[in-house]
Structure prediction request, 295 residues.
Amino acid sequence: MKIEAATDLHPAVDTSPILEQGRRVERLARARVDQSHSAKIPPKLKAIPVAVGPRLSLVERLVEATYVVFERCFAALALIAGSPILLVEAIAIKLDSKGPVFFHHERAAQSMPTLGQDLLQRTDLEPPAGGFQPDQLYWVPRPFRFVKFRTMRHDALELYPELYWWNYNISEHEFQNIYHNLDDDPRVTRVGKFLRKTSLDEIVNFWHVLTGECRLVGPRPEIVDILPYYSAEEMRKFTVKPGITCLWAIRGRSELSVRQKNEHDIEYVATRSVWLDLKVLVLTAWCVVWRRGAY
Prediction:
């Protein structure tokens, strides 16, 4: 009796869901830290010399002034048009979980040019090589009060302290490979997950554009507690105003690590222009519609 060789005993298996789950687990692991790490002794904030650039021409100054007026008007219209949505969001957040509707946090504003003579007594700053020169200007980090809708549990810090990695003494390598936002983050509420997916929680950020603390486009406002982990080169991203959208928001968003986001932010600072901002705004709208990298 002739026996045919079996060639299809192991049919092909679609491994893409398994691989995707693996990536989720990897992102979560990179955001957690071992609680056996000693409590951190915060490194000092870094002050970098102010780069003296060419003066803007009259035409360039007029374009910039017009652009700022456009940003403020756009932000005002966005807040007025979005006010019914903001009200619904506030009610949904309040009904869904305990805690306040709004979340207040200190974020990094545009650094302030300051004379070295005013920094000689500062013990919280790391001076450049050779120390502060009295007559030299330096970019010095400063905070501002950032307001957004609460999308996490009010007791997230107590329940998941290992996800607040800046409270631990982590290495530079660990910092560079951290992911700020996580898929299936256990701290995020049900309503918060929907708001993040749809980016509806970002509407309230137009308030900061209206008040002048933010621009429409710029590096996203960073958590002040994280700044000591930045290198002097990375601190250059704070020499411009933060924005409610940015270059990395159209190049992967939450799928990018801290290192990748910083690289895009530094690229933006080096190449920024009104035309680049308009391009980022258009592509941001596209990413929001398709929810690319949003979680």
The first strand starts at residue 45 and ends at 46. Residues 20 and 26 are 10 Å apart (CA to CA).
